[in-house]
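Checklist before submission:
- one chain only
- standard amino acids only
- sequence pasted in full

Submission:
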Amino acid sequence: MELSNILAPGSVRALGHLTSKKRILQELADTAAARFGLPASAVFDALQDRETLGPTGVGQGVALPHARVEGLEQVHGVFVRLEKPVDFDSVDRKPVDLVFGLFAPIDSGVDHLKALAMVSRTLRDRGTCVKLRSTDDPAALYAILTEGRTSRAA
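Returned file contents:
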């Protein structure tokens, strides 16, 4: 599996006006709704429900909010690079500026976990994060995220 299988160029954004975790989740929901034909409120509720289980801020300025959503046939992603970091209740208590939202079908099972592992590996790479933080061009962000990485997940 490659990141380009779940992330489309139109699902990558650079934003400077978000000021809270809730606004980030709403932006992810709105983008997913527009891109994948889903009701934004259902996507937002699914993201919020997942956050109540534990924060998805994984540290080093990265958050990986994810949810299973009714109406999807495959796993999809939305990436947002924030101009100013925002508190996301991260494990390291540092604000986030790189947010990858992952949306999976209700019954996706192992595909959701493989995609989450692949995104996590990609965003744990310090070099990748430095590159992502150096641009606000969506096309460049997409290229950085999808440059030749393949999954090692079984």
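Reviewer check: The chain is about 40% helix and 20% strand.
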